Amino acid sequence: MVGKYGITDKFGNPPGINWSGESYWDNGDLVRDVVPVNPSGGWVYQPLRRGAASQLMVRLQNFDRTSRGIPALAENATLDGIAGNGLAYNLANCGGPNQLIADRTADEYNRNYYDHAIPGCAGVKYVWDTYYVTYGVSWRAVDENLDANLGIPSLSDSAWTTNGRWLASSPHYTNLTNRAYTQAGCGYYGFWACEFLG
């Protein structure tokens, strides 16, 4: 096995990695970008599974929370779907045109914007005013972290970089460590989005 930076792994398959695209590092195993090398020495591309992105980011955030004595967030499949796993929204529901838009991250990528406000709605509307209503998500406390993390080809490097940016940013750090939030859902499609719910 050869690592992403050309370092040979003399131990074969590292623990904590399977080849379905899902990490299974529940006990804190290190996630590494290791891919089999084909006989010509080129990289073997592993396609992105959006569910793996959601799971990876929520687990990174839970590591950050629990290492600070804050309870872990429950991963919410509906929030994952809204953030980046295929739950669409019709702008007509927020006073806009009758136009179906993709989940948060794919919508930002497809319509080329980067903002918490969703363009195309009548007035300023956020994910909790729109997608949450459509999918029956109720809340007492809510917020969203976004990051435009384009150009990093490795999912784990992209998640690590984005999570580091959020930890270094006061408002994003506050969302990550807020005890009022009990659930989270994340998604990736060129952009990262994490939805926090309490």
Count of helical segments? 6
Along the chain, the helix and strand elements come as EEHEHEEHHEHHEE
The strand order across the widest sheet is 3-7-8-6
**Amino-to-carboxy terminus distance:** 43 Å
SS-derived structural category: alpha+beta
- Characterize the overall form: globular
Q: Let me know the largest β-sheet.
A: 4 strands, mixed
- What portion of residues belong to β-strands? 15-25%
Q: What's the rounded overall pLDDT mean?
A: 81
**Helical content, roughly?**
25-40%
Structure summary, number of beta strands: 8
Low-confidence stretches: 1-47
Q: What is the CA-based Rg, rounded?
A: 18 Å
General description of the model:
- The chain has 198 residues and is of the alpha+beta class.
- The chain has six helices and eight strands.
- α1 (50-66) packs parallel to α5 and α5 (155-168) packs across α6.
- The radius of gyration is 18 Å and the shape is globular.
- The protein starts with a strand and ends with a strand.
Task: Please specify the SSE layout and strand pairing.
Layout: E1 2-3, E2 34-35, H1 50-66, E3 74-75, H2 77-84, E4 89-90, E5 100-101, H3 104-111, H4 131-134, E6 142-148, H5 155-168, H6 170-177, E7 183-188, E8 191-197
Parallel strand pairs: 3-7
Antiparallel strand pairs: 1-2, 4-5, 6-8, 7-8
